[in-house]
């Protein structure tokens, strides 16, 4: 009886977990949407400080931030004396696998959450976007958030002026054995709010470039100062029972 009770308890746990995993995207909360888009198996956020070297990709730690604040106080900085905070010069890159269904679902749900009233026609259109076939391509999007508005023109120019030809040798997917898949097509940011799109062929030589047990690194260098570097594990990229990337 003890073993039976344990088995029943485990079945309940897994059933509850499976139910949560298969929750329709049209019912996702804002928190679930932001988690999927910014910190998940399919999406990462890379934060760069103004003094970071191009190769550094980690967020500024609280220790570093406090040290910088101490220096400002000791130097009697104007912004501390006036009580006004200086705009942050950090840059956040949001790197997402748009070809992964959960990312498309999160983008679609975010649009619906912004609507004052339910819109069945819009919902139908967005369902078509979520269910779109990406079997031939891998698409990674990169969007940017800056702390200082003065940085916007330069960042915007870097993405809008970039071309496929200029980026072909500086943007790639790299799997765990070191083999690289270089960019096929680049699309600058559009009005859809998804950011710049980097398109790769899903298969090479008739075989998928990535296997389900692979890790994959996305690397993009737009100029000397702007580098994006994010690593993912395909084993973690499960959605509705299949690997999505």
Task: Tell me what you see in this structure.
The chain has helices spanning 2-21, 30-38, 62-74, 78-81, 101-113, 120-130, 152-161, 164-167, and strands at residues 43-48, 91-97, 137-146, 171-175, 180-182, 185-187, 196-201, 203-204, 207-208, 215-221, 227-233, 238-239, 242-243. With 245 residues, the chain is an alpha+beta fold. It has one domain (23-50, 88-243). Strands 1-2-3-7-6 form a five-stranded antiparallel sheet. Strand 10 and strand 11 form a beta hairpin.
Topology, please?
Blueprint: H1 2-21, H2 30-38, E1 43-48, H3 62-74, H4 78-81, E2 91-97, H5 101-113, H6 120-130, E3 137-146, H7 152-161, H8 164-167, E4 171-175, E5 180-182, E6 185-187, E7 196-201, E8 203-204, E9 207-208, E10 215-221, E11 227-233, E12 238-239, E13 242-243
Antiparallel strand pairs: 1-2, 2-3, 3-7, 4-5, 4-10, 6-7, 8-9, 10-11, 12-13
Helix pairs in contact: 2-5, 5-6
Brief synopsis:
With about 240 residues, the chain is of the alpha+beta class. The protein contains eight helices and 13 strands.
Strand order of the largest sheet: 1-2-3-7-6
Largest sheet: 5 strands, antiparallel
Number of strands: 13
The helix content is 25-40%
Shape: globular
Mean pLDDT reading: 81
Which regions contain 5 or more consecutive residues with pLDDT less than 50?
1-20, 52-82
The helix/strand series, from N terminus to C terminus, equals HHEHHEHHEHHEEEEEEEEEE
- Terminal CA distance reads 44 Å
Q: Radius of gyration in whole Å, from Cα?
A: 21 Å
Number of domains: 1
Broad structural category: alpha+beta
Count of helices? 8
Strand content is 25-35%
